[in-house]
Amino acid sequence: MEFLVATSASWAITVVRVVLGVIFVAHGAQKVFGAFGGYGLKGTTGYFKSIGLPLPIGYLVCFMEFFGGIGLVLGLLTRLSALAVTIVMVGAIVKVHAPHGFFLNWELKPGKGHGFEMNLALIAMAVACMIAGGGAMSVDLLLAP
Q1: Of 52, 54, 65, 104, which is least packed with CB atoms within 10 Å of its CB?
Q2: Which of 33, 16, 139 is nearest to 82 (CA)?
Q3: pLDDT (0 to 100) of residue 145
């Protein structure tokens, strides 16, 4: 347990952690609650099922994204939260984005989805959090021995 909360007091990783957390809370809220124009649990898990994910995995993805984001914003069990969002992003690359190549579809060309460059950037941010911990202003820093 000590490893999960051990952290530096770095402000740099705090910025990375909080921004990454906000991104995942927002996207998780779309999936779980239908907030910000999202489809909610029923719509999102229906889509996941249509691409071959079993329903329990679909629910797990939605909640890992939302609660992983909350953990990152708070700096609570930062390494575990960052691992959760990393797993979600690797899954997104494999199941959705890899066939579209590397780049985002900036032109919004019909029939072409987004590549995986953004997923890689989010994974890099999450890996930085797994390495450094929660940083300054984190619950982990308060809990660390």
Answers
A1: 52
A2: 16
A3: 80
Under-50 pLDDT residues of the chain = none
Residue 2: the pLDDT is 82
3-state secondary structure of 106: coil
pLDDT of residue 8: 86
Secondary structure of residue 6 in the 3-state scheme: coil
| Residue position matching structure tokens 């939605």 | 62
Rounded Cα gap, residues 91 and 71, in angstroms: 20
**pLDDT, position 3:** 78
| For the chain, domain boundaries | 2-143
> Which tokens hold the place of 49?
């099922």
Q: Which residue intervals of the chain are DSSP H helices?
A: 2-5, 11-33, 40-50, 55-74, 78-92, 117-132, 139-143
CB contact at 8 A, 87 and 64:
yes
Q: How far apart are CA 123 and CA 68, in angstroms?
A: 13
Q: Residue 121 has what DSSP assignment?
A: H
The verdict on pTM exceeding 0.90 is yes
d(CA 145, CA 11): 19
